[in-house]
Each structure stands twice: as C-alpha cells, then as structure tokens.
Fold each of these.
Amino acid sequence: MNQPLVCMTLTGKTLDEDVKLVKKYEKYIDLVELRVDYLNEDEQLYARRFPSMIYQPCILTIRRDVDGGLFSGGEFARTNLFGRALAFANPDKAKNFAFVDFEDDFHIPSIQDAAMAFGVRIIRSYHNMTDPVLNIRERCDIMRKTGYEIPKIAFMPHSLSDVLNLFKEGERMTQYDHILCAMGPLGFPSRILASYTNSFLTYVSPAEGIENTKSIGHIDPVTINDLYHFKSINQDTQLYGISGWPLLKTSSPEIHNKGYENKALNALYLPFRSPLISDTLSFCEKIGVRGLSVTIPHKESVLYYLHEQSPEVAQIGACNTIVRKNNKWLGYNTDATGFRRALEEFLGGVKLKHKKVSVIGAGGAAKAIIYTLKLMGAKVCIFNRTVETAAKLADKYGFSYCELSPHCVSKLNEYSTLIVQTTSVGMNSEGPSSSENDPIYFYDFKGSEMVFDIVYEPSVTPIMKRAAIAGCKVCNGYKMLEYQGFEQFKLFTGLDYE
C-alpha cells in the first residue's frame, strides 16, 4: 500500500489568483494542477510562467469540455497552448512543469517528445463523465504506450459496485504509477482511500474554488488532512463510516474522527453514500469496514441484512448502527438513547408523563423517538403524509395518529406541549418557511409550544425559525447526533468517548 500525494486543482481566472491559493494551502498539499482551461484567455498565453511562481511540482492540464473541462476551442488551438506552455525549458527543472496531462486520444509526437526531453512526465488520462469504466487494469496497460506515462482513469460510477471494481483492480496494480478515481458522491471513498487502489495521487480543490469541482466530488485540502487524516491511512487503519442517501452533509465524521484522535486510535470514519443499503454492505464487507452508522433512508431496509438485532432494534423496528463481527452484521439502535438524553436537556425539569406530544413523520428516526416517548410516559399523536404508516405505528403503542395536512391543525393544537419534527424536510434549507421546507407550514405557533427538530443542518431550520419568532422554545438535532454518536463510538471501539 503506497502513500498517495495530495494534488490541489487550481481553477482561478488568473495566475496570480492561483499563486495566492497555493501559498495559502501549501502545508496541506504535495503538488498542484494548473487548469489552464479555467484561466482568462489572455492569461492562458502565460501559463509557462506558473511553475517558477510557486514552490510545488505542477501538472499542466488544458481540459476539453467533453472531458469535464472548459476548453471549447479546436485541437489546433489547444495544441498551440500546450506547446507554448512547455517551450523554453528552464535548466532548473523546478521551474518547469513536472507533469503534463494528455488525454488518451491526444497524440502529437512533437509535443510528447518535447515533454519527455525536458523531463516532464506525461499523465495519459481517460475520463468518462457519465458511465463507469470496468476494464481498468487492461486499459491502463494499453495507455502506457512508452512505459513512461502515468495512466489515469476517472469515471462516474452508477453504483458502489462500480467503485468496488475500481478497488479490486487497483489493489493488484503495483507495477507502475497510475491514478484512479471514481467521481461524484458515490466515488468519495476512492478519493479518501486512494492508497487502497495504489493511486499515485488524489485530487482536492481549494475551498475558494470548490464549486468548480463539486459535481465530480472534490473536497478541500484542509478537510482531507485534518478531518480524514489522509496521510496517516495505512493497511492497519480500522475503517468505520456512515451510510445514507443522498447524505449531502453530515457531521458524523467530525464527531467520530475526533474521538479516534483523542484516543490515539488508528481508525477512520467516512461516508459511504448509496441509494441501496445492499450495495453499501457489499462494498464495506470487501474493503474491511468494521462498523457503520445508518441514516436516511436505510434505517428500516438494513434490518433484512442483519444476523442479530439488539432488543431495542427488535422493539423499535429500525436500526441506526451496525457492527461487523465474525463476518456477520449486528444491529443496534442508539437513536433512542441519544434522543432521550438530548430531549431531557432541552426540557430542563419538564416531565412528559401524561403530556400530549406531536411527532411529525413515521420513518426510521420517528420509530426510535416514539419508542422513547412511550418510555417517558407521554401521550403521542403521530402525523404523517401516508396515514396508513402512521396508523400502524400508533397502534403498536396505543397512540393517536392523523394525516399530515392542513386539515390536522386542530389535532396539532391538542398535542402541542412538544412538537418533535423527525423528517428530512427542512434539511439544508435556510430560506423562508414554505410547503417544501416546513412540514407544518400551515400551523400557527402560539408561543407556548416546545419544538425539537432532529435536523441539524442548518442549525436553525425554517420550522424552528418560525416557531422561535412566535416565542417558542426550540432545539435542533445536533445534541441528539452527538449523544447517539457517542454510543456508536463505544459499540465500534469498546471505549467511552472523550
């Protein structure tokens, strides 16, 4: 298992802008990629100067639009730019480009010969922006026409099984330098675990330019180093993570990786995004993941794949934590304990026994919350768009239920001591309240209600903001996330979280 380099992709409009970014992040990176196709047209003519303006090795790239870049001119114009950028080599190699990225179908002998003569290593790349590449090793072998090139394959996977194939192929590729990357949210593990595929490097982007590469899955150099401890990953690193979809944002890696760091554990926690829990489990089994947090929408579908369930999982009917032992998945639910601890802090001295509480939603998280509210002696009404689902859950505990619609206002008023919002509605939304981001947009808060929203991103959701303006006491789900995460940490490691 080799130690890949961290390469920062530069997509500034000017060379000076890119130089400032290199200086800002220099302690986090090993080399940079100058994306000439992002430079202003007049700046492109002076790309040759860039290596002498910085202290890191630099890759020269002029990416065509068909390969995910911005260069839309003809190949003649692009060839001239390559020639201009590589010409007049400096006797000091540090002031020349260290690498140049040519696509697999770009073959200009004079340019290639000049690069080789000046000691510029050629990255021979193939990009598929829509589909996976399966014959990776065979294709890389063919791409090394002179034995001097570094073959690079980057593709858009359709499933985690496509990413798993990349891991299997890359694991056996130890004879020469190569770069392998699965793009997009599904491909995220291939960036963090680049050492598993023996990849020569992994790509990042500065926070200032992350929007330019967000769609293909770049993260920033600080995150890959400080959160995921990229340089410390080795064959002994214990892997854990979180599975969900789309899982746009999650604070779980921050919580767990900080815990491993405090305990001096060689362990790593990262997202494994997939719309299918079956794909996640197959992938994680093959690469040796020891434990997973399970979030929306997998908390119920994961039950089918468990070999053993804790009593809480069996009672609740949902699982948010799985641990791999003796080649079997064991299921637990830490949402219930995490919610209770966070809720009791929020309530202060208020007791819920015989109090009427509304629960918005009837999914996996709601099941754990309703189970907890039953233990706390509350009287609950479950509100859900699919009333049959609410009815089934309510019958299990002897609770009330109602369809979640403007017609349920009177019932909400009746069960308004505490309103617990358990759906994903409002997640990643900071706009004004609407039917799209506020599940009870039709309800007028009196100011006496307490509102607990399990969403924590943003920290103040539209429903919370509206309730707070009315004078309600409000709380988001971050403390619940923390407390259930502490329980997961102990299940994963056997140690108490510090």
Amino acid sequence: MMHAEKRANPFTHKFASLSLSKLSGDGSFSGYASLFGEVDLAKDRIERGAFAASLAERGAAGVRMLYQHDPAEPIGAWKIIREDARGLYVEGLLSPGVARAREVHALMKTGALDGLSIGFRTVRAKRDPATGVRRILEADLWEISVVTFPMLPSARVSNVKNARFFRDKETELVRTLRRATRSMIMTTFKG
C-alpha cells in the first residue's frame, strides 16, 4: 500500500469495492469505485465530495481504466464518473480490440473478477488520533483499475447471469426517462 505522504511517488492506490449494476455484451459495465464513509482495510475513509474538484477539472475522459493498476495495461475507457449519495459511481466500456479487456469481460461475466481500485493523490486529509482512521477530504483521482482484491471487500457482483445488479435510484430514473422518451419519439414518428 502506497501513501502519498510517505513516499516519493505522489499517487496512492486505494482499493474499493465494485458493485456492478450492468454488464452487457459490448463490454459496458457500471458500479461504484469508492463508497463514502466506509473504512477500508488500510484505515482510510473517503468523504463525500472528495473527488469533486478533480472530476470538474479532469472529467471521465481524463481518468484511466487500467487492469490491476498496471499503466501498461489500459483496458477501456470511463464514460461516466460522478459522485452521488452512496459513493463514486462509474460507467465504463471495455475495449473489445484489447486481449486483456476481452479476458476481463469474460471474468466479470462469470463473477470471477469484480473489484475496483482507485489511484489518486491525497490533496487534503485528517487523521483521527483515537482510531487511526485517515479521512480523505480531497483526492486527485487519476485512475480506476479493475482488480482481483478490492480494499473494501464487502460489495461484490450480485447477479451476472440475469444482468440484474444494484443500481442507484438516480441512474435508474435517468434510464427510465430515456426509455420513455425513446418510446414517445418512436410512437410520434410511426403515427
């Protein structure tokens, strides 16, 4: 485990659980790369709003999708990264022309690979002297990796077979509205 304040490398690898909400045939998937308020195995806790400045500056296109934090193994691209009430929600697309991405996709579909880990530089943090927990108040997010062992082991893929996973209410509402809009447009053009 690297901590930015102790090493010359300014980046920190934080392992967070992935809760997939959709895994499709084209390599699209979604989930949570970080869950706010949960203490990980390294005694770090990401606070709500910690990624806001970084995401405003960098956006999803500026955050790399890697396999096991290996900069030589990009496997796709993040399409959506946003903070919500639960944590850092992500939607990504694995690149079908990349052999490792095809392997990752196959492993995700069988439930053999379901972890995410965030790579970031700590900008602002406070340590609780009583518990030793470090509260990350601001983080410069630079990559999110698909990994075997997440630092927050509690959230896992719930059901790959039927493609029914946890989905946050905001995302589900947006998807429902999009489907309804498409349906109304199709009805209007047919009529």
